[in-house]
Design a protein that fits this description.
This protein has two domains: 288 residues, Aminopeptidase (3-Layer(aba) Sandwich), CATH 3.40.630; 122 residues, 2-Layer Sandwich (Alpha-Beta Plaits), CATH 3.30.70. By secondary structure, it is of the alpha+beta class. Helices cover 35% and strands 21% of the residues. The strands form four sheets. Strands 1, 2, 3, 6, 7, 8, 15, 16 and 17 form a nine-stranded mixed sheet that branches. It has a four-stranded antiparallel sheet with strand order 11-13-9-14, covered by helices on one side. The chain has 13 helices and 18 strands. The protein binds ligand BES and manganese (II) ion (2 copies). The site of ligand BES has 13 residues, from loops.
């Protein structure tokens, strides 16, 4: 039956493109209050699509953006069939800077064998691959090879603040899952699919320094009062040492060295730091001394300044000492680092660096741990076979530096491991202008998903 499903998928390639373009046209920007209505329509679009694929689909409201929950009707699944859950997120990052896009972010365009649009890869495009595979199974076979549930979220890009209660509410319906599948990561390189076995965790902090009660003339007052903007730069400059290590006391206490065989496996992957440098427009890569680029990205914790605000931002010169200065700082965590402990260590360390006359407020916006997932489970074996069928090559096992909060809730609340099976590529421009998904990846993703349902059904029957 899978063969017939695959033929039908290939025959409908134009349709998949048209359908995904509709979804990508909806500016589902979760962080932007001006797009609340678009969030609702993107959720409804998915709900209708899942219904057209024969699933029972409903909207689950949350305090902010809705989830979509869909299940295959019992009469369309083999009796006693195993249960597989697919998660995806339909929200996207803001598209700015708009002027850097070659075509408008919400007018999906096919150019050079790629779908170019915000969300093309992260994550509407990848999630759509599963929706299309469901539709194909239903059209061709009139039934599904196993029981399938789909959970779509609209708040992943803002840290999934309302997802935990939803998972808790759905726990009775989720906990019998034989496999949890997420396609929100990437292949290792063109022609080298990947299964991701680890994601980094996160502590995100917002730091505000305040000095004088209002902006001051820097000629009249300069030299006699601490400048919050200068203080902020000095403090941020002390958060790394000369070898690229983070200086927060205790930051590395719980960081394990990665075992030699794993490091050796990574060293064998066909990865070129030079090519990556070229891709991102730098002459040379840079990071913690003593580690390869893949190690720096996959198994070492980091601290990065994500945003800065202080003082005069307009054209030309304005001579002021700003009254306040702010920074957004994120730390990527690795396995066994405790986000609470790291967050707790940050505050006193920053306090100790404050000059006289400057006050600090620190707000922790998110905190969750890193995850490692199994690499040898039955679900992983099924995924490996499906990848070979759908994408034409065997996958490598990698880790990724990014984060997907729900993987933590699945583990903590359901005690279940997730299979991270991404269809995108490392140069998809996630969160950046001209986000894209290669058509090869898109069609290969649909085929992989169709094969995965078949492989999982065999594996768990
Ligand atoms: N899909 C990404 C995470 C990702 C990217 C995993 C590349 C593997 C490879 C996800 O949508 C994301 O951007 N996560 C955010 C966290 C969120 C709270 C903003 C991240 O990692 O910064
Ligand atoms: Mn994503
Ligand atoms: Mn993202």
């Amino acid at each position: 039956m899978l063969d017939t499903v695959m033929i039908w998928i290939d025959k409908n390639s134009r349709r998949w493109l048209q359908d995904v373009q509709q979804w990508l046209s909806i500016p589902s920007i979760s962080t932007d209050p001006n797009h609340v209505a678009d969030m609702a329509s993107a959720a409804q679009w998915a709900q209708h699509y899942l219904r057209s694929a024969g699933l029972h689909a409903q909207i689950i409201e949350t305090p902010r953006h809705p989830c979509v929950w869909a299940t295959t009707p019992p009469e369309m699944c083999p009796r006693g069939a195993s249960h597989v859950v697919i998660y995806g997120h339909y929200d996207v990052q803001p598209p700015d800077p708009l002027e850097a896009w070659v075509s408008p972010p919400f007018s999906p365009t096919i150019r050079g064998g790629q779908i170019v649009a915000r969300g093309a890869s992260d994550d509407k495009g990848q999630t759509f691959c599963h929706l299309a595979a469901l539709l194909a199974w239903r059209e061709v076979a009139q039934e599904f090879p196993l029981r399938i549930s789909v959970l779509l979220e609209g708040e992943e890009e803002i840290g999934s603040p309302n997802l935990r209660p939803v998972i808790e509410q759905l726990k009775p319906l989720l906990s019998d899952a034989a496999a949890l599948i997420i396609s929100d990561s990437s292949q290792f390189a063109p022609g080298i699919p990947a299964i991701t076995s680890g994601l980094r965790g996160m502590v995100y902090a917002q730091l505000t320094l305040t000095g004088p009660s209002h902006d001051l003339h820097s000629g009249i007052y300069g030299g006699a009062v601490a400048n919050p903007a200068t203080a902020l730069c000095q403090i941020l400059g002390k958060l790394h040492d000369a070898t690229g290590r983070v200086t927060i006391p205790g930051f590395y206490d719980d960081v394990d060295a990665v075992d030699a065989p794993t490091r050796a496996d990574w060293a064998k992957l066909p990865f070129s730091p030079e090519a990556m440098a070229r891709d991102i427009g730098v002459k040379q890569l840079n990071g913690e001394h003593g580690y390869t680029t893949l190690e720096r990205r996959w198994c070492r914790p980091t601290l990065d300044v994500n945003g800065l605000t202080a003082g005069f931002q307009g054209n030309g010169a304005k001579t002021i000492i700003p009254g306040s200065a702010g920074a957004k700082v994120s730390m990527r965590l690795v396995p066994r680092q405790d986000p609470e402990k790291i967050a707790a260590a940050l505050e006193p360390f920053l306090q100790s660096l404050l000059p006289d006359g400057i006050e600090m407020q620190l707000e922790i916006l998110s905190a969750w741990p890193a995850v490692l997932t199994a690499t040898d489970s039955p679900a992983i074996s099924a995924a490996m076979r499906a990848i070979r069928t759908g994408l034409g090559n065997d996958p490598v096992i990698v880790r990724e530096g990014g984060s997907i909060p729900v993987v933590n809730w699945f583990r903590q609340i359901l005690g279940l491991e997730t299979v991270l099976l991404g269809f995108g590529l490392p140069d998809d421009n996630l969160h950046a202008p001209n986000e894209k998904l290669d058509l090869d990846c898109f069609y290969g993703g649909i085929r992989t998903s169709a094969a995965l349902l078949d492989e999982l059904a065999r594996q768990f029957s």
